[in-house]
Amino acid sequence: MRKHTRTMRWLVLGAVLAIAAAACGGSDDSGGGDGGGGETFRIAIVAPSASNDLAFTQSIVDAVNRVKDERGNIEVAVTDGTFVVEDAAAAIRDYASQGYDLVIAHGSQYGGSLQEIAPEFPDTTFAWGTAADTFGLDNVYAYEAASNEGGYVMGVMGAMLSKSKVIGIIGPIEVGDAKLYVDGYAAGVEAEDPGATVNINYTGSFSDVGLASEAAQAQIAAGADVLTGTAQMVVGAVGVAKDKGVLWFGTQSNQTSLAPEIVVASQVYHWEVILDQILDQIAAGKKGGETFKIDLANDGIVIEYNDGFDLPADVKQKAEETIAGIVDGSIDAG
Amino acid sequence: MIAVVAAVLAYLFLWRTPTGFRLRAVGLSKDAARYAGIPVKRMTTLALTLSGALSGLAGAILVFGSESHRMVTDGSAAGLTGNAGFNGIVAALFGGLHPLWTIPASFLFGGLLVGGNALQRAVQVPSALILALNGLVVVFVVSSDRFRRRARMRTVAPLDDETPALAAAEADP
Amino acid sequence: MSQFFSQAILIAAVAGGIRLAVPLLLAALGETYGQRSGVLNLGVDGVMLLGAFGGYFTVLELGNVWLGLVVGVGIGAILGLATAFISVTLGAEQGISGIGVYLFGLGMSDLLFQKLVGTPLPIESFPKVPLPGLSSIPVVGEMLFQHSLVVYAAFLLVPISTFVINRTTFGMNIRAVGENPEAADSVGISVARVRYATVLIGGILAGVAGAALAIDLGIFQQNLTNAQGFIAVALVYFGAWRPLGVMGGALLYGMVNSIVLQLKTLGIIPRSWSDIAAMAPAVITILALVLVARRFRQPAALAKPFVRET
């Protein structure tokens, strides 16, 4: 036992010292290029869920990577899984102090922290999503998604495809982007078929996959043959849809790979549309003070159909008409 | 600061008042305490109430300390607190269940977590790796023999030098 | 409200409740063995997560759900042995070491998932096996007898565990070691051996619980269990360290969750009440505990490492 103790304690001491050293070393290192010049442009992402959640966080990580592939000379750092605001704030502050040119705070709960941190780093651009407030600061951009638009279009499609005329929506908590999407989808169903039943269930969690799975079962028991939902937990619901042969509409990311037989389409957030604009503006010297929105009009929101799904021509046509209607303003997507 | 004050108050209460002594006696041996005339049920209720109050205080501090003064959760068990509750249990046990020792223990554990996050950002390893490493560090620290011995002593020793309080407790029905 | 009492809904609610209860039941039963012998294992959720990833990955690569379960057993066994070593041989503080294992399991399963899988891909689930004869019983048949073999096995473990704990020598040793390890030791029972066995069983069942969860859901995600492992530990207390009680607790929890989901779906619980309704499982479990609680003591030596006085 004595020998155990000695080795253990040195091991632990060593580990702690190593971590502390790395921490100190990390923050002193004020990175490469100086703010968007000819050198590498450095982007940091701080996001609440996992980078491969096939939902919210994945949408921004994918977008940044697309921008990186397209433009080149971009370095990307990611801190994901930071749902807790305190941890995210520490991450945002750290990246800023390390000289990152653009720090993306991808979570509406990070707003308060941003408001506090941004003024301390006037040379850094902060991007806050999903939100529409830049706090009057000139180094903060805000961005959001008109998820209700894509939701509306898919709601129209869902109503047309549903034979039982019962449609189920599974949401996490009735806030923000989730609420926007759910309301949009429900509005679309209502517009296409006022007699259809829409059952909405907010499970109360963004992350409980098991609960989402059972929520889907409950929806199907109530008669639904078309389902949709938002947040990373929906992977559970998609699995049930696949088992029961019920149709699925996805949002935030392309969810076809989860169930190629039954996914009809996904509303994919192409954040790179506004990321491009932001990067251009930074290069031109403007570090913030503007809000952006991705929607059907600017191709920031794209309805990506599942090519493997046999979509009837009239449904597809109605969808395209609806998109056009929303874009030219003749249709109000709730 | 509130936390440190609370810790000091907790120590004073548990070790320097008759009620605190009775509380600890119940924890050490329910039967012996009952024999000595200590109302066990009442003490247990008191202990749980105090612990609940402190937890509530922790939660309040968490929300008031955040810029937005709002509670944000993802509906999971650790949505708002980020495992602070579990980490609190670990810190308490690290401190050998003695209020004053929980202060350095919490700082140390907090340092471990913050240092780990900084490491993640600096080296760009997945946060999951840091989490796993945290777990390993906890396991290794806790496995060291000496630590266990110290924790045991801490809960037993103070009882010896409480003779005045013991007499006071016995005189007080 | 009358909508809820339609046949289809009731069947779905009960069947769903049973499905939700199974991972909890398996993990809690495993923990019961350990706690009855005096070892508190708070790392259950971590073991479940690693078992879940192992099972998921196996099915993803090899396509066989039963192999996935076997891998769950294996992972659970390894972690069970590690836990036993830490808690029994090293005598570490059990509350803390368990949390350490949890953090490790949470992080490791996520890391492996990111590195080995990347974008989540679905896997197949357990086939439903309707029990011949029984499954044809109207209503009840569909509720109870059209599940997968894993579900049946989990519930079978309850009477088996009750029998083992109460009527075998092994069970007697478990109880003795959990109540009074000094006495047991003096009579020649190897406290360490018994605790190693129970913690190993606990680990295996937790690993199986995790694998079953992932395969049943047909997918993996970081923190898939969402702290269910901790609920399983709480269920052991709820069930007064008896398998039947634990089963009752697991079913109660599963049913309440399932019923609340149905009520929300049908709109019987309005959306404004949605968040309050999310409290229901916890509240009802506490209520049940208050109503049903009797004078059940915990195993006297729970969470106290045993050191032989010489």
SS field, number of helical segments of chain C: 13
Order of secondary-structure elements of chain C: HHHHHHHHHHHHH
For the sheet with most strands of chain C, the description reads:
none
What is the global morphology of chain A? globular
CATH class of the largest domain in chain A: Alpha Beta
Question: Topology of this protein?
Answer:
The complex is a heterotrimer of chains A (334), B (173) and C (310).
Chain A: H1 2-28, E1 41-46, H2 56-71, E2 74-79, H3 85-97, E3 102-106, H4 111-117, E4 125-129, E5 140-145, H5 147-161, E6 166-171, H6 176-192, E7 197-202, H7 209-221, E8 226-229, H8 234-244, E9 247-252, E10 263-269, H9 272-283, E11 291-294, E12 301-305, H10 313-327
Parallel strand pairs in A: 1-2, 1-3, 3-4, 4-5, 5-11, 6-7, 6-8, 8-9, 9-10
Antiparallel strand pairs in A: 10-12
Helix pairs in contact in A: 5-6, 5-10, 7-8
Chain B: H1 2-16, H2 18-28, H3 30-35, H4 40-65, H5 84-94, H6 99-123, H7 127-143, H8 145-156, H9 163-171
Helix pairs in contact in B: 1-2, 1-6, 2-4, 2-9, 5-6, 6-7
Chain C: H1 7-36, H2 44-62, H3 65-89, H4 94-117, H5 140-144, H6 149-167, H7 169-179, H8 181-186, H9 191-217, H10 228-238, H11 243-265, H12 274-277, H13 280-292
Helix pairs in contact in C: 1-6, 1-7, 1-9, 1-10, 1-11, 2-3, 2-4, 2-9, 2-10, 3-9, 6-7, 7-9, 10-11, 11-13
Account of the 3D structure:
The complex is a heterotrimer of chains A (334), B (173) and C (310). Chain A has 334 residues and is α/β, with parallel strands linked by helices. Chain A has two domains: 140 residues, Rossmann fold, CATH 3.40.50; 149 residues, Response regulator (Rossmann fold). Helix content of chain A is 44%, strand content 20%. In chain A, the strands form two sheets. In chain A, strands 2-1-3-4-5-11 form a six-stranded parallel beta sheet, with helices on both faces. A six-stranded mixed beta sheet of chain A has the order 7-6-8-9-10-12, sandwiched between helices. In chain A, helix 5 runs parallel beside helix 6, helix 5 packs antiparallel against helix 10 and helix 7 runs parallel beside helix 8. The N terminus of chain A is likely disordered. Chain B is mostly helical and 173 residues long. Chain B is elongated. Chain C has a single domain, classed as Orthogonal Bundle (ABC transporter involved in vitamin B12 uptake, BtuC), CATH 1.10.3470. Helix content of chain C is 70%, strand content 0%. Chain C has 13 helices and no strands. Chain C is globular and about 60 Å long. The mean pLDDT of chain C is 89. The interface between A and C is large, with 42 and 44 residues.
